[in-house]
Every structure is written in C-alpha cells, then in structure tokens.
Design brief:
It is found in: Cell outer membrane. One of its GO terms (biological process) is iron ion transport. Its main location: membrane. By secondary structure, the chain is mainly beta. Among the domains are: about 290-435 and about 475-540 and about 590-650, no CATH class; about 885-1025, no CATH class. The chain is about 15% helix and about 40% strand. The strands form 11 sheets. It has a 22-stranded antiparallel beta barrel. Helix 12 (about 880-905) packs across helix 14 and helix 18 (about 1075-1085) packs antiparallel against helix 19. The longest helix is centred in the C-terminal third of the chain and has 26 residues, at about 880-905. The protein is globular, with a radius of gyration of 34 Å. The model is unreliable at about 1-45, about 120-130, about 320-330, about 370-380, about 490-500, about 915-925 and about 925-940 (pLDDT under 50).
Length: about 1250
C-alpha cells in the first residue's frame, strides 16, 4: 500500500533527490577520459536491422519503422496504417506525454484536461479515471490502444524525457501482436546511447508554477564500441486548479556496446542494456466540475432557500427518498428538491463533522439512530437531508407525477455546477488536498543482436522486465451541497431530548402539525452552510511483466543471384523473419477502505452488519466549506472554499451514538405510548426516552496505513498469472524490381491464465488477505490458442511513369488485411467464460511524394471491426450493473423473511406481530402488490377489500399475492453454479425444498438471519461482485470505417508543415449472446409474481420497476442503437502544425510555429422516443465543434564553442478562455455533464547543450 510522505516541492528537495544522479553525470567525463578521442572524420556505422534511429530524422516523421515486420522497414513498403512522430515534433509542440500527443495524431483521442474526449460515454453517473490517465484513450472511435515500449506491452506511462519517437499503429497487426486489441498500439521508442559525447540540461516553467528539470548525459566509454547515457527527470507539475499537482521523478540509464564479435564492421554485434525507475505522486486535476446539489437551493423555482426539520421532511413527504416512496396522505408537502445527503453515505455509521476554517473535527456521531431493535420514535430512517441531485429530483417528481421524467433512474443524469460564483472549479479542487494517485515503476531490458552473411541474416535476443504499482485514495465525493436541516438529526449526544415532537393540540393522528412548534432535538448551527462529504475508498493495481523475445531474419536476393536479369528482377528480393516470444504477466488488484470502524462499534450499539463492505462500519464525514448562505447573493459569489486540511483518522475517538439499553425502571414496556411525531398509538418499548439514549464512548478507527489494520480493511483482492507463448513468421518480397511488395505474416499464440480471488481472512467481516498466494488457492486455469494472419501488398509506379509526372515523384498503392485477438480470461454476468475479443481490419489507399521528396501524402480508407469487445463508456447499464449481481439474492432474502413471518402466525395465530422485535412488519409489508390493497403495517387483515370477514388473514388477496411472490422466487432460482461463481452463500437445493425449515437454511451469510432485522442488503458476494478476481462485463460488436489523410511538407530546410484529417463513422453492433441471454433470464424472473416484491422497503416501488429502469430499458436502447454512431464520435477532425526557422540574417536562430486542431460536432445524448418510455437512438443530440490554436517561438544560438542555448515559449489554447464542453445531456437536451476546457496558458523551456 502506498504511503504518502509530505513532498517538498522546492529546489533543496530536488537537489537532495537527484544529487546521486548529478554526481554520476559529472563523473562521466572522468570515467571516459582515457578513452581514445574521436577522429576528425565522422565514421559510418552499420545500423542494426533491429533498430531505427529516429533521432537522426530531421523532421516530424520517420521514413522507417519496426512496426511492420519487426525489422527495419520503409513505412511506404507496408500496407498498414502507421504514423510516427519524432522528438522534434514533441519538442516543438511542447508534448511530454500521451495526454498531449493523441490530440494531434490521426484517429486518436485522449481524456483529461488537455484531452479531446471524456471516455465516459453517456453513462448516468460521471466518474473520472485519475489514477492512470494515459490509458484513457480511443483509436478510430473503438477502444483504447495498447501501450508498448520498444514493442513490449507496458503499464508504465511514457514521458518525452527519454523517448526518441512515438509510433502509432492503428488497427490490429498480428505480426506485432497476435494477442492484442483491435485498436492498435502506441509505442514509445526509448533513447539509446550514442557514440558522441553530449550533455543536455533542460528546464521548463509554466504559468501555474510547474518546474521541470531534465538532465541528459551521454558519454563514449570506448570509441566506436561502448557508450553510456544517463537521463534524469524531476517534474513538479502544477495546474490551474491550485490544489492539484503531479510530482514525477524518473531516472533512465542505458548502455550500448558494439564488440564486433563476428565479421567486423560488416556483421555488427550490438548489445543494449537499459534501466528505468520512476515515482509519480499526484493529486490529479479534475476535468469535470462537482455534481450540483446546491443551485436549486437558490432557485426561486426550486427550494427558494427553504430549510426543513429532518424528521418532518422525512415523515411528511418532503423527503421523497429518491422517488421510491411518496406520502400519499400529504401531497401538498411534496418537495422533490429535498433529497438524501448523497444517498447511502450517512446512516448508522459514525460521521465526522469538520469545520473548514480550522480544519478541526467539531463532532463525531451516529446520524441515523437505529440499533438491532427498531425504535418507533425515530421511524428508523431519519437522516441528514440535502438538496437532491437532478437524477434524484427526476425520480422524486416521478414519484408524485409518474411519467414526468420517463426512465428517470437511468436516463436523467445529475448536472454539474456550471456557475463559478457558486464554486470556482476552474481554479480549485472541491476536495482540496484529500485525494491521492500514485504510480511507481521499474523496468530493465537487455538485448543482443548479431548479423551474418554481410547483413543478409541476423538474430536478436531481447529480455524485458517491468514492475508497476499504481493506485489511489479518494476521500470526498466530487459533489457540492448545502445543509437544509433546521435541527441536528433528531437527537444529539451533547444535549436535547431523543424525541422530536410538536404541539399537536386539536390535531388528529397523522394530521400535519405546525413545524414551527418543534421541541426536542438540538438546533443545527450549520444550517445554510455548504458542505462536501464522502466516505473513503481506495484501490491498487500492480503488475510484474517478464518477457523474452527471439527474432531472426534471412534475406534471399534472387535478383542478385540471377545477375539482375529479367527473371531476377521478377523474382526479386525476399526477407523471412521468424519470432519466438514468451510473455508472463503477474497482476494483482485490490480495493479497500482507507479507514473503518473496528468491531467495538457494531458490538456496542449493537448493529447487525459487521462486514467491511457494508454500511455500518464505514466512516463518513461532512466538511462545511462556507458560512450561512441563506441570505447570500449568488451573483456576488458565495465564497465557497475547497476542503481545508487532510482527513485521515486512526485510533480511538469519542463518538456519539444512541444506546438502546433499557433504562426506564418501573415503566411497563407494553403500556400505551402516543408517538409525538405523528400522534399514533404505540407502546413504551417504542419510546426512545426509555433507553439510555444519546451518549458517547471511545471507539477504534482502523487505518490502512497502520500495519496492524492493513489486512482488516481490504474488501476484495484478486490475482492472475498469464503466460503467452508466441510463434510467428513474416515474409516480405520486393518483386518486379521492387514495384510489387507483398507481405504476409502468420502467428500462433497460446495463452495460459491462472486467476483467483483472495480468500476471506476474517469470516465475520469478510475482509480478505490481499497478499495471498495465487497458486495456494487452486486457481482457475484457462488455456486459449489462436492463429492470426496479416497480409498486404504495395504497388509502386515504375520509373518510366514517374519520369513523366510533372509534379509528383511517384505513387504507391496499398491494400492490407490484418487480425488479432485477446485471450484474456473474461467472465459475463451469467458467470460463464466469454468468447475471445478479436479484431479485424482492412486498410487500403495510396501514398505519393512530390517536389523531389519534399512533400509526402498518404490517404487511407479503413474498415476496422471488434467482436466481443467490452462495452465501452463505463457501465453498459448506466451504472446499475450491481443490480444483476445482487438483486436475485436479495429477493431470496425477502422471500425467506416473508415466509418466516407467515410461519410465526401459523404456529401461533394469537401471536403479537410486534413481539418478535419489530422486523416482521417491515418485511411483511413487502407483500403489498400493486393491486390497490393496503393495511396498517402492524395489524393483520381481518376482512377482505369488500368488508367480508376472513377465515384467515392469509385469505386476503394481498397475502395470497405474497404467497405467489414467494413461490415465484423458488421457481426462478438461478443454477447453483451462478451463486458459487460470485461467492454467494446460497444453497439452491435447500431453497427448493418443500420444507420451509430447510429453506430457511438456504442462506448461510452471517449478516443475514430470517428471525432478526438484519438488513438484507448487508449481504454481499465474497468477491465484491467479481468472479475469480474478474469483474463481469457485457460485450458488444463494434465497427468503424472512415478515411485518414496524412500530409508532410518540408518546404525547405527552414520550413516544415505537417497535417492530418480524419473522417470516422464508428458504430455499435449487436450485444453479446451471453449478456443478452442472461438479461432475458432476469426478465423472466421479474415478469413473474416475484417482480411484485418491493425493492428496498414496504412502501417502495416493485422491484420489477427498478429492473425496467435500471436494466431493461438501457439494454433495449443498446439493442436499438445497433449500427448507429457510438457516443462522443466526432465525424471529422483536422490537425495542422507549421514551423519555420530562420537560419540567416538578423533573425538567425529564431523559429516560429503554429498548431491548429479542429473537431466536428459530437453526439452527447439522445431524445426520448414517441412512446416516451426509452431513448430514441434515431434522435441524437449534438454538442458543438471545438478548435484550438497553439503557438510557439524559439531561439537557438551558441554561447561559446562548446555550449548551445535554446529557449522556446509555447502558448497553448491561444485566445481561449477557460470554459466547459458538453459531455452528456438529458433527454430534453439540457446539459448534464461537462468537461473543463483549459484556456490559454504558457510554457517556457530553456535547454543547454554542451
């Protein structure tokens, strides 16, 4: 687990951190002082065919690549879509990483502040990928590319400090990787040591305070034989959002040795060694504003600054509870803008109250008073109320007026704050310094290559080792709200009665009182204050890669052997390349709570849910970030500040809670008690004042950074070990004197995967051991074999045609097809293994050169397809896939509880239905079907709806319906294998028994019992929703076709132009068969009477309605969207870069450049269909087009003979103001999510070479 030291971003820290590197660089000249000095004349070295020296290319692109056949090949001889940008391009444009580069290159997109898409699709809830932003990319509108370094897969983000060139292969290529995604790769070619002494010191500053240092020292140790290079990076990056930063320290060392073991200069031996170590610690900027739970408070058509007593808001219908329950008795009290304080965040767990001015904790207490015995005075569900998000508001309105927002729970999304007078999200992070991301890595590789037969044969052996750990903690939600509670959550340990009451003189039971007469409780000193809240979550992912690759080639020159005859030219030259590769990837993934309560919390209260993944043990917090805003003017600015301080509790804390111990001597628990809340008759055992009530005690808070607590807070973990063995052969020929160039590649890959979920180390909490031994768990084994091919042909115009061309030098026509697959162990929601993801691509077009090679143009038409791809854009069902994993089991729990209640009555018809703790009425009311029948929760029906006396309460139509619900659950159980796969403690055989006593043993979860009030949703699968460590996914076929235009023009040695234009039509295909079949099985369940069971509690909507909104409607939309454009697709893009350098006259050494990027409209959502019951895939809603202008000016001169100085100023987003770009909209076209667009900013780089 990553520890977080306080990083001092100051020069003294930088010197301490990199002093060993500086000393090493300073000593390099001494190490090599006895080496023979270089000759005056420059030697010409035979370059290894396994190497491309991109740094020797003068312009923005390279002529040669390894991406086509794995040995050095001219790009124009390949029928593939390959683009390479050089170090010169990276330096001119100020690009340092993937997040900058992929906005310039053809058919590529990337997320983040500098990016050109969000990568979120049109999901209902916005989540950001902050831990690994370099992976948030998309190629040809399909999916992210695989990242590689020197053509080995990598999890390490590349940085320009040690990169010579970046190659982008669009579409599959089995010659490179038979086992890979269909989108292609982004490969970084690392710098090599050269046989010339050179040193470089570089410093970059920007307007936000970034300080970036690069030290590059290259030393020849043995002339023409051995050279060593050391490069260090220290990058303290800051952002417009003041609290955000990214500190990067990397060091890279490489050695090149040419011993010429065999054959001298004509058969060079090349040995390369390299090592890199890096640490990245960040509080990454957010590219979306906070969720908006505050604007409606000030809106005259919203809450209009109203505040409420929390108990009144709940009981009398103001609190709509996310649209799931409406108080039909008091429709005039409905207020749809009143919602929960971030639903599910605050309940029976302890909550820390923090003041932002001091950063100090002002109180810690249980917000929802509930113990094992439900207490009537509290109604069991009193929580802190807040302003609803728009999604919750839409559901609330639907609760009172059904159909107002069709599909509210899925299709209507939360809005984000758009007004900086509320909060300045451009310049601040709402959660301040309370978020962390980190990435630590290490890489070592070694290669030896040798050529034979005058360069006509060669072999290379390459070893690559990489290790990487990345992760992060997020403490606060990216959401902003306001406290609308007049009183402090019913009771308070600091004083006040446990019972809230009103003057009810003259009122009938359940008649609405005058809320101004409230007594009891404690006045809330924070009413009207804005707040941020959260409950911490953390995750970590690590990989260890061990790769080895043997490549050999042989060239057969029949043209030479046949003395350049006609047949010799016809048969031409042939190159055969063979490959054997072995890759091993060990990975682990873990999720945890950074802090949680210990068992003393749930044991003392007591509470039923002791699970580390449950609600009762999590730690929540509310931090107030403003004063009282009830009289504030939004236009003048609300003065809301980001969270101050860093929250990380550990050890003993005094926490307030409701003690349910009886403390009323002489009071008969069965005596009548009138509830002051609503005037209803209850008993004294329901009176909170008869218990010890609000008190405080010391409780232990676990913290993941405490070694003793480490294993207690992990919710899930999984590991996998994947080994891939590959054999491949490639043939390329140059026929008819090089005018016909066919290429064919064949590859076999065998993948063996072992995977397992961490064992539970504590059965009571469900906590797991994240450091478990994979092979000690009898891991599941999956072996997959595949064969893939790539082929293409290039036709070049002959010289007799080229000589007659007035403008053009030559033409090249190409056609190629390629494929690959991913043999990953993937599982569907039905628990079965999924078919391999595979990709196919067809690329064809032409290239030409003109003006004596100064101009180069390539036009490519492509058709790329993915089969069985993971549905992109996040959750395929709008963030509700949890329903598929859990709801079937929760319905079993409901059915067992209902059956238990019925058995209590059957055993003793005179039994008091309130005597068995109180859970029975709660579960009993799940029987209410949508037939209009209802009755008091505490009284069994004695007459039917027509007033006729019943022989038995179970003859009532509602209880008959309940019996049908229970039976429908047993009739629609999933196979035992499904429950086992997820780790559910379900015994299907017992549940299908005819004996209710046996069925009651069908769930063995310790957090569930049929005869207690244990919350059904406390039951969670042992893998937290994963199967053998794998997260279930839905699959879809995807297709993309379009046109790519690439242009490069070296007008003269001073002037270089580079451009690309892309048209993309990407669409979704059919949903995977496994996914569709499983959804249909759920459909069958909810079409049965089991669908009448209430989802969350007695008065809730039927679970069938949730299924419709959460699952079925999004699924139908996915089906209906087949063949239509995918989310966030921009049909056209255009990029242009222009650079001019003066080489004489008074401007000698000056260079100026311009970059321009334009993007077409994109689809950000869909309207509703004519039936108003789903989205209409044929009614897309478009966002606007965007463009960006980048400018730079530089100056280069020699300060003295041995020192060269270069300075460059880059202006990015010239003329742009910081602003917002729509990402998704609601069905009515109103904007939901938006992405922050960075405005104009500057960057200054100074470089000294000597």
């Amino acid at each position: 687990m990553k520890k977080y030291p306080k990083l001092e971003r100051c020069p003294s820290y930088l010197m301490r951190k990199f002093t060993p590197m500086y000393i090493g660089a300073a000593l390099l000249p001494v190490v090599g002082m006895h080496a023979q000095e270089a000759d005056e004349s420059e030697d010409v070295f035979e370059l290894s065919p396994f190497t491309v020296e991109a740094s020797n290319e003068g312009g923005y692109t390279t002529e040669e690549t390894l991406a086509g056949t794995r040995i050095r090949t001219n790009v124009r001889d390949l029928a593939a879509s390959i683009s390479t940008v050089t170090e010169t391009f990276l330096r001119d444009t100020g690009v340092t990483g993937a997040e900058d580069l992929l906005t310039y290159t053809p058919s590529t997109e990337t997320g983040g502040l500098e990016g050109n898409f969000s990568g979120l699709g049109n999901t209902g809830n916005l989540e950001e990928e902050l831990i690994a932003p370099h992976t948030n990319s998309r190629v040809r509108g399909l999916s992210s590319a695989d990242n590689t370094r020197d053509f080995f897969r990598t999890d390490i983000p590349w940085d320009s400090y040690n990169v010579d060139a970046v190659t982008i292969q669009r579409g599959p290529n089995s010659v490179l990787f038979g086992v890979a995604g269909a989108s292609g790769i982004v490969n970084s070619a690392l710098k090599k040591a050269s046989f010339q002494d050179q040193y470089r010191v570089e410093n970059t500053l920007d307007e936000f305070g970034r300080v970036r240092f690069v030290l590059d020292a290259n030393k020849v140790l043995i002339e023409d034989k051995m050279a060593f290079r050391l490069i260090g990076l220290d990058d303290a990056e800051k952002y417009r959002q003041d609290e955000a930063y990214k500190d990067t320290q990397r060091i890279y060392a490489t050695l090149q040795y040419n011993p010429q073991i065999i054959g001298g200069d004509q058969a060079p031996t090349n040995i390369q060694l390299s090592y890199e170590h890096g640490d990245i610690a960040a509080n990454s900027p957010r590219f979306t504003p906070p969720d908006d739970r505050i604007t409606a408070f000030f809106d005259p058509n919203g809450l209009n600054r109203q505040v409420f007593h929390p108990q009144a808001a709940w009981k009398y219908g103001m609190q709509m509870d996310r649209g799931t329950r409406v108080n039909d008795d008091y429709p005039d009290q409905w207020e749809p803008w009143v919602g929960q304080q971030n639903p599910g965040l605050i309940g029976t767990n302890p909550t820390f109250i923090i003041d932002n001015v001091t950063g100090q904790v002002t109180g810690i207490q249980q917000m929802q008073a509930r113990t094992e015995e439900s207490i009537g005075g509290f109604a069991d569900m009193i929580r802190m109320n807040s302003v609803a998000g728009f999604n919750e508001y839409a559901q609330n309105v639907n609760g009172g007026t059904p159909g107002s927002f069709p599909g509210a729970s899925t299709f209507w999304k939360n809005r984000v704050v758009q007004d900086t007078n509320i909060f300045d999200f451009y310049n601040h992070l709402i959660d301040g310094d309370n978020k962390r991301e980190y990435n630590d890595f290490e890489a070592f590789n070694a290669s030896i290559s040798q050529t034979f037969l005058d360069g006509n044969a060669g072999v290379e052996l390459f070893f690559d080792r990489q290790s990487m750990t990345r992760g992060g903690d997020s403490y606060y939600q990216n959401s902003l709200s306001i406290d609308i509670n007049t009183h402090k959550f019913v009771g308070d340990p600091m004083g006040g009665s446990a019972v809230s009451s009103w003057d009810r003189t003259g009122l009938e039971p359940d008649e609405v009182p005058d809320f101004s007469t409230v007594s009891g409780g404690v006045v809330n000193p924070n009413v009207g204050r804005a707040f941020v809240s959260g409950d911490a979550n953390g995750r970590e992912y690590s990989t260890t890669r061990k790769n080895s690759r043997l490549t050999g080639f042989y060239k057969l020159d029949l043209q030479e052997k046949l003395d350049d005859s006609f047949f010799g030219k016809l048969l031409g030259r042939h190159t055969f390349t063979g490959l054997f590769q072995k890759d091993n990837v060990e990975s682990s993934n873990r999720s945890y709570r950074p802090f949680a309560t210990d068992y003393d919390w749930v044991d003392t209260l007591p509470l039923s849910d002791s699970g580390i993944s449950g609600y009762d043990r999590k730690v929540s917090y509310v931090q107030y970030v403003s004063g009282d805003l009830r009289n504030a003017n939004v236009a003048d600015g609300l003065g809301i500040l980001p969270v101050n301080g860093r929250f990380s509790p550990s050890g003993l804390y005094s926490i307030g809670y409701f003690d349910g111990t009886w403390n009323a001597n002489g009071v008969n628990p069965e005596d009548v008690w009138i509830r002051p809340l609503d005037g209803r008759e209850a008993t004294q055992k329901d009176n909170p004042d008869n218990y010890v009530g609000w008190t405080t005690n010391n409780f232990n808070i676990l913290n993941v950074n405490n070694p003793y607590d480490y294993n207690k807070v992990h919710r899930s973990a999984n590991k996998s070990d994947i080994e891939i063995e590959s054999l491949g052969v490639t043939w390329q020929a140059r026929l008819l004197d090089g005018h016909i160039i066919p290429t064919y590649g064949y590859r076999e890959d065998t993948s063996t995967t072992f995977s397992a979920t961490a064992p539970v180390s504590d059965p009571r909490s469900g906590a797991v051991d994240p450091n478990f031994d994979l092979f000690g768990q009898s891991p599941a084994e999956l072996v997959i074999k595949g064969e893939t091919t790539s082929w293409g042909v290039v036709l070049k115009t002959p010289e007799f045609i080229n000589d007659k061309l007035p403008f053009f030098d030559d033409f090249t026509f190409f056609y190629g097809e390629s494929e690959n697959f991913i043999p990953a162990d993937r599982v569907g929601y039905d628990g079965s293994s999924l078919p391999n993801e595979s990709g196919e691509s067809k690329d064809y077009g032409l290239t030409f050169k003109a003006l004596d090679g100064k101009m180069s143009v390539k036009a490519t038409w492509f058709e790329t397809s993915q089969k069985n791809a993971q549905i992109p854009g996040g959750d395929p069902l709008g963030s509700n896939s949890w329903f598929l994993v859990r709801n079937n089991v929760w319905q079993i729990g409901h059915a067992l509880k209902m059956e238990r209640i019925r058995s209590v009555y059957n055993a003793d018809p005179s039994a008091d239905w309130n005597s068995e703790i109180g859970w029975q009425s709660w579960a009993y009311n799940y029987a209410w079907p949508d037939d209009g029948y209802g009755y008091d929760a505490h009284v069994l029906p004695t007459v039917d709806p027509d007033g006729n006396e019943l022989a038995s309460p179970f003859d009532h139509p509602s209880l008959k319906a309940q019996e049908g619900m229970i039976q429908a659950v047993w009739d629609n159980l999933f196979p035992q294998e499904w429950y086992d796969a997820y780790g559910w403690p379900i015994d299907v055989a017992k549940l299908k028994s005819d004996d209710p006593a046996v069925r009651a043993q069908g769930i063995t979860d310790p957090n569930f019992a049929v005869n207690t009030s244990a919350n059904i949703v406390s039951m969670q699968p042992s893998g937290n929703g994963s199967i053998n460590g794998l997260t279930p996914i839905g699959t879809v076929d995807q297709h993309s076709e379009g046109f790519e235009f690439e242009f490069s023009f070296q007008v003269n040695e001073n002037w270089h132009m580079w451009a690309n234009a892309v048209k993309t039509e990407a669409s979704r295909g059919s949903i995977g068969e496994n996914f569709a079949a499983f959804l249909q099985s759920y459909r069958n369940l909810y079409d049965s009477p089991a669908g009448d069971i209430r989802q969350w509690w007695a008065g809730d909507r039927a679970s069938r309605e949730y299924f419709e909104d959460f699952i079925w409607k999004p699924y139908l939309f996915q089906q209906e969207a087949e063949g239509l454009p995918a989310p966030e697709i921009r049909p056209w893009r255009f990029n242009f870069v222009n650079n001019y350098e003066f080489k004489e006259g008074k401007f000698d050494g000056v260079r100026v450049g311009l970059g321009y990027r334009w993007e077409d409209d994109l689809i950000v959502g869909n309207g509703l269909n004519s039936a108003q019951d789903n989205l209409d895939p044929n009614d897309p809603i478009y966002g606007g087009s965007t463009d960006n202008i980048d400018l730079w000016v530089g100056y280069n001169r020699d300060l003295r003979d041995s020192i060269n100085w270069d300075i460059q100023l880059n202006l990015k987003g010239v003329g742009d103001d910081v602003g917002l770009v729509p990402v998704s909209v609601n069905p009515d076209g109103s904007i939901a999510a938006m992405r922050i667009r960075e405005g104009m900013r500057w960057e200054l780089r100074n470089t000294f070479k000597f």
